[in-house]
Queue: 4 jobs
Job 1
Amino acid sequence: MALLLLRLLPIRIAVGGARAATFLPGRAALPQEAEAAFAAVRRAARLWPGRAACLEESLAAHFAAALTGRRVRWVIGARFIPQGAHAWIEAGNAITGQDETDRVWPYVPALQVERSN
């Protein structure tokens, strides 16, 4: 679903879908639950013949968590030195979706999608 939203439609539609997923019933995810959702998405992405990078993976993990009754924060951010953009999910203060090789942190969040209480 995340791949189709991001590839075929304007990103505002994907953001709207992510916001809609926050209204599903559930509780805040624990960091290990967010990691499990992200790991499941990464395993599934290996079967996809095309590219599945951080944006697609993080959105899919956001949806996976929401569909299993867990809430995570979907974040898209950027950094200036060196220039880059990245997307990830957060459970509490734990960041999920940062590659071990990416040691230049932090990215500044530009968009955060989470359930408002």
Job 2
Amino acid sequence: MKNLLVAVGLTSLLSACAHHDDVRPSSDNQHYVIIKSSERGQGVKEALDQATHFCKQDKQSMFVVNESVTYQGEKTEHEFLSDKSTAEIITNAGTWLWVLGDGYVDDAGAIASIAGASAEHSLGKPYLINLSFRCGN
């Protein structure tokens, strides 16, 4: 069970490596990154990281031209954030019970952890981040 947690953590770290799959290059040196994210700040960071990585491959610096974040969820943003917070609390509490519990407690913790993660995943990625940038020295 603890090996599973280590494997999931390692997978998360490896998938967080810098890349630029979402960069849309342009011949006029004004490139775009468009990302959907479940968190506003995390989405902006990912877009900036991808733009920076794209420019660094040519040993150039990245300069932001324009950045916009749009919420496009089915619920209001307040409802989405409230539901996301609740799911995170359930996942975290379940994980602690799963790791530290004994007998039926760790089984209940595993169920709560998985249910919370599933609920959070089902909320989707309502934030659309659109970043335009240039590369230069």
Job 3
Amino acid sequence: MNEFAETHFRYDDDPDLPGWKRWQILDQGRFNSFIGALSVKLDGKVARVRTTFAHQHSNLRDHIHGGALAGFIDMALFAAGRSFGVLSGPASTLDMSVQFITGGAIGVATEAHVELLRETGRLLFLRGVVVQDDVMVASFLGTIRKPSQK
């Protein structure tokens, strides 16, 4: 991991999920801390990014709030890029689209399954789905601008 990543994130073995890595922002005053630590596992060509949403992430229907889910997806793009070994510095989301398919349950392990479609010199093109067990909650596409090589 480079100096930027080591200064701002923890990326080490997840003590709660053997075989997974824990990806967590160190500055708990940042937006990422609202979602919490993410667990990441590379499964072939798919990065599995996992969290469990709590009451503070819910809407009035007692489902995962769409904003919390979109925030998780955005963070999952970066966690996946780190697990693929193609992202380790300050990058930016250029584009992200989300299709909400059904309400996600609170208190249930939620995973984003992320694929790297293409990497160019400056961009990552990713897609995936969010699932809870066998239930597909959402699908998404995202484009990330990689950090400058300066």
Job 4
Amino acid sequence: MNAMSARARRAGMGLTAFGAAAATMVLVAPQASAWVSDISVGGSNQQVGCAYTVTATVAVDRLLSVSFTDNGTAITGSPVTPSLLSNSVTIQWTPTTAGAHTIQATQDFISKSTVVQVAASSAFGSVGCGLNGLFPSLSG
């Protein structure tokens, strides 16, 4: 019984050491394969009152939802659940104020962000959405 308990103790210590080593590897592993790997905002010359598509690329986990924020405030329609067949999720974003907007996508504590400069709405209001550069002499 003495030899048996010594073997059991050694086996227990081996399993404990293996568990500690595995936990350490998980905690110090680099985040090279992050969940949200990219974020982009469609269009150009974004302006107040116009809708734009925000796309987040999901590199690893397609089961957990992706939350989108604009300067820390949830974007309407967020969070979005990815499709198992696609590596990206999208949401529509309509800025309500001019200036710098930090658009962020977060999934399971891993996030990516981009900064978008938003101009004031055009003299045409929402009718002017998508007309950027079409009538340069009328816009300023």
